[in-house]
Amino acid sequence: MLTFExxxxxxxxxxxxxxxSLPFKKVAHQVATLDAQPSNENGGIMVMVTGALLVWNIxxxxxxxxxxxxxxxxxxxxxxxxxxxxxxxxxxxxxxxVFRLVYGS
Length: 105
Hints:
The protein has 105 residues and is mainly beta. The protein has one domain (2-101): Nuclear Transport Factor 2, Chain: A (Roll), CATH 3.10.450. It has one helix and six strands. The protein has one helix at residues 12-20, and strands spanning 2-4, 7-9, 26-38, 45-56, 74-86, 92-101. Strands 2-1-6-5-4-3 form a six-stranded mixed beta sheet, with helices on one face. β3 (26-38) and β4 form a beta hairpin. The longest helix has 9 residues, at 12-20.
């Protein structure tokens, strides 16, 4: 399950559709902090990340009623917490993911 802002999406196909429908031409992450710890007896890992998204060619109306369309990156702070679980074949998959943009006050 992915919670993106106030919308919860479940299932790989629905999550992919949501992420590809976002109005960004290009996105880069600038990670500021990353913390991880064991989350259960089965080898799960809880991860929290904060940082900034750099987005190009964005056409979006934010809470601040600010819109921008150009080729310079527009940084937007974010917080993301997700849980990784082992898939039984030596890899992990994202079981839960909560993503929030952090707006200035």
